[in-house]
Amino acid sequence: MMSRYLFLGVNALVLIFMLLSPWAVPTREFDGSGYMLNPLGAINPAALKLPDLHLAWLPMMLWLWVALLLAASGALFLPDERNRARVLYILGGIAIALFLLEALLFYQAVTAANTAAVAAGARRPPLRRFAMSLGAYVGLFYGFGLLLLGRMQLPGGRAFLVRYRGMVVPLVALLLSVLVGAVIVAILRPGLGLANAQAIGLREFLAAKLDLVTYTYQILFSPVLNLTGIFSSLAFATPLIFAGLAVAFGFKSGLFNIGGPGQITLGGVGAMLAGVYMPGPGWLVFIVAILAAAAGGALWAGIAGWLKARFGANEVINTIMLNYIAASVLLFLVANNDYKFFGHAVHLPFKAAGFEGRSEEIQPGARIPLIIDLLAPGGHFSWALPLAVVAGIAVYIGLGRLELGRRLLAAGTAIIAGYLLGLVLPGFAVKVSTDLSSILFNGSFLLAVLALLFYHFFLFRSSSGYELRAVGLAPKAAEYAGVNLNRKIVVAMLVSGALAGLVATHYVLGAGVDGTFRLKQSLPTDAGFFGIAIALMGQNTPLGIFMASALFGVLLSGATTLNVQLGISRDLVTVLQALIIMFIAVGGLLPRYFTDPLKAAQVETEDRTRQDELEAKATKAVGD
Question: Is 54 part of any domain?
């Protein structure tokens, strides 16, 4: 019964948020202050002169929500589980429908007001930068919560959540980090529109603070709403995918590779040496430069792996120390040209002329092009890349009955054939905006996708990967079964380092730093540390790593706009990252069966037994 009364408390909290929060913002100023609407009355701390929207439906919507909250509160006290679930499903659907209706009515009102103003002679629409706000979003999230709560009422509901704990724990950790981040933002920055207000009441003060938090996260997640933002987010995400895979590969093998920065640096050195100085045709230099990036990272991680296998040295300490050595190697190569060794002058050819610490430019043939240049070279859309992707996926799925090796070979052949066919097919002219073409989203993203596929197939579909996972789970048992632990440790660190080294393909070969194809002293190696958060949030799964990288890419892209518009530091993303790691480390504050595999199996067994008993009783009742 305690859970039922806790649900009543949640419902009361939802109602309070709806009463205090703005439901919609018809317009915002450039400083973020806005004209806010609430069922209890408009909240306008900036005293903006705006047309009347005639939103008489807002108070009616509030009463509908009060009725829905009361119905949901009573539903949980129904004696029959299936009836409870059915009612909660219906109420959840109604809650989502109410949110959609509110959005529709609001946007219709804004459009009508703007149209009338322009018709009356206004030079431009008076309502701009409008959006739904927290009061409406609370109802939407509540609707999804009711659907989940309805599923929990059915037999096996707890087992349902435990079965998907790989998604539940990161999502709960993300939610908790967002809530803590919201509190931090609300404390550190004045509410929107309060700076110039002369007198303001408690209701207006709270509404402005809540709108500040809402607008902050709207900006952070705004890149997903347009193609330029998506390209920017994926550009940020590309190095994070490599780094997350590197850390996750070590985790799966029972190792903690924290040497990502050093391995990225050596990967950059390898890519620079091959991309600048290797003679030969462009396609050969291109391939060798990519392999050299992987080899540089593998070499640096392999040192730590060999030290652990040979002497039992802790890989965490070794990889951290190797990070500092790698940074010094980078300085030695590109920070200066002339050195003295034992009184003899030595001239190194790696640094380019000028004061900045950077290498010579990568050969044109070894450069990785932008994605937009692959999709629309010269402003003319090409079918090559889309056909290659579609053909590869279609063949791999269509040949599901063949063994893995043959499926991969057939899919690879289909990719090549689709690409060649796409080059022959006539395209069409497209207009590429300046904003889109300036985004440094390059073809290393395709390499990151291939790395995700390699991670999946090697670890989960091959005997070598099975042995590595066995070493990670139970090294003594794996050794007893005949696995060479020392060899597997070295192999795991080599592969992990190679994945980290491939980050350099984005920064050096793809000009992902500032559009110049060079190795620079300012190489952004912090992606190696971001990889820890990516691996933890992604639960070491390929799909999870991709989604976590994409999420952080969106946040990093949105943080730039947030800093310009509201003056909130981009370090907020770093704070969110740290909070996510912390909450995942404590299992999202969820019960232990979400983090302990043995307890999770016990919960699933108990729920399955209970479900069988209920079905047996139902069958017996029907028979009687």
Answer: yes
pLDDT, tens only, 514-567? 888 999 998 999 888 889 989 988 989 998 999 999 999 999 999 888 888 888
Distance CA 441, CA 19 (A): 43
* Rounded-to-integer distance, Cα 222 and Cα 229, Å: 8
Note down the domain range covering 415: 383-426
Tell me whether residue 578 is in a domain: no
Q: How would you classify the pairing of strands 34-37 and 24-28?
A: antiparallel
Q: Are residues 373 and 417 located together in one domain of the fold?
A: no
> Where does a domain end: 497, 517, 540?
540
Beta-bridge mates of residue 340: 345
The amino acid at 568: I
Specify whether 341 is located in the same domain as 358.
Answer: yes
Co-location of 360 and 504 in the same domain: yes
- The three-state secondary structure class of 27 is strand
Does a structural domain hold residue 360? yes
3-state helix, strand, coil in the chain (%, to 5): 70, 5, 25
In a domain, 361, yes or no: yes
Which among 293, 250, 174 is positioned nearest to 540, based on CA atoms?
Answer: 250
Q: Whose CA is closest to 330, among 246, 240, 267?
A: 267
Cβ neighbours of 60 (radius 10 Å):
11
Residue among 66, 32, 33 at smallest CA distance from 48: 33
Closest residue by Cα to residue 370 from 443, 450, 448: 443
pTM for this one?
0.89
Give tens-digit pLDDT for 460-502.
988 899 999 999 988 889 888 888 999 999 999 999 999 999 9
**Closest CA relative to residue 275, chosen from 331, 374, 359:** 359
Domain count, the chain: 4
